UniProtKB/TrEMBL annotation:
It comes from Candidatus Erwinia haradaeae. Pfam families: Hexapep, LpxD. Signal peptide: none annotated. Catalyzes the N-acylation of UDP-3-O-(hydroxytetradecanoyl)glucosamine using 3-hydroxytetradecanoyl-ACP as the acyl donor. Is involved in the biosynthesis of lipid A, a phosphorylated glycolipid that anchors the lipopolysaccharide to the outer membrane of the cell. Belongs to the transferase hexapeptide repeat family. LpxD subfamily. This is UDP-3-O-(3-hydroxymyristoyl)glucosamine N-acyltransferase. The gene is lpxD. It is an enzyme of class 2 (transferase). One of its GO terms (cellular component) is membrane. Keywords: Acyltransferase, Lipid A biosynthesis, Lipid biosynthesis, Lipid metabolism, Repeat, Transferase. PANTHER family: UDP-3-O-ACYLGLUCOSAMINE N-ACYLTRANSFERASE, UDP-3-O-ACYLGLUCOSAMINE N-ACYLTRANSFERASE 1, MITOCHONDRIAL-RELATED. It comes from the Bacteria. Homotrimer. The active site is at residue 239. Residues 23-89 form the UDP-3-O-[3-hydroxymyristoyl] glucosamine N-acyltransferase non-repeat region domain.
Amino acid sequence: MFFIRLADLAKELNAELHGDGEISISGIASMQSAQRGQITFLSNKRYCKKLLVCQASAVVLTRADLEFFYGSALIVTDPYLAYARIAQLFDKTPKPAIRIAPSAVIDCTACLGKRVAIGANTVIESDVVLGDDVVIGAGCFIGKQTHIGSRSQLWANVSIYHEVEIGQDCLIQSGTVIGSDGFGYVRGSGNWVKIPQLGTVIIGHRVEIGACTTIDRGSLDNTKIGNDVIVDNQCQIAHNVVIGNNTAVAGGVIMAGSLQVGQYCMIGGASVINGHIEICDNVTVTGMSMVMRSITEPGIYSSGIPIQPNKTWRKTVTLVMHIDDIRKRLKNLERTFKNIEE
């Protein structure tokens, strides 16, 4: 089991120590469940009262909240960020693979870096390049001429099509497909004619992609994901989409083809974004929004309808269905009042 002195943890977090630095910390837990030997954190004043009954050996909090706790503490500016860093220290998640499994099928032309691990039944095709310390989980498929940068990890059953480029320190969760054909067809003589997708997918450094997400290859140009982008589970990123650095995409988002998303954007869960439009830098789109036109100014944008009691929702829908009739009646009233005034 991993232990760390509270004083050493303070140095790790660049935090101010308050209390006994010799306390041994063996884990992190919520305020409700934390026990002796564990550390917890307070990031919301609404939970200050819970500190009175908290059993944790130490708490991470701000200086303003120190008055609510009488035990040992680490004083930081952002307790939630400190929690994330402590959680990394105590993370017990195993590697997707620890060696090259005998059942892995690796083409003789593939170039493997130092300390590469490849799980059981994984297929590595011709001319693939894997950087140092790359870990590929069980049952993965890595297509021809794909390049994966150093220290990147793929969990089980990830499929990477041919000629895809993935940067360093990336993490790709199970079931994700990268480089599949974009949805390109044209109708000819009553039938759909497939358009071969001739581009690829280029993913930057330190990108994390959630489980069962699909990123399609470009039709002519490439689909591009910038550095430090995080994409949640079950997202659809269509062909030729470009996502700028440090953008976050929550679960279930659908992005249509040739969309361009700027840097430092946040896209809320279950949002749908039209293709062939642009979203500028520093835009937040709240959950379940429908983005049909370009966004040219930074800010927060919403279109989802909050939940209502069913009776209220039915009345709202009825009004929406009759909104054109209401508009016409209002115009007639305006004309009538204008004639009376004249």
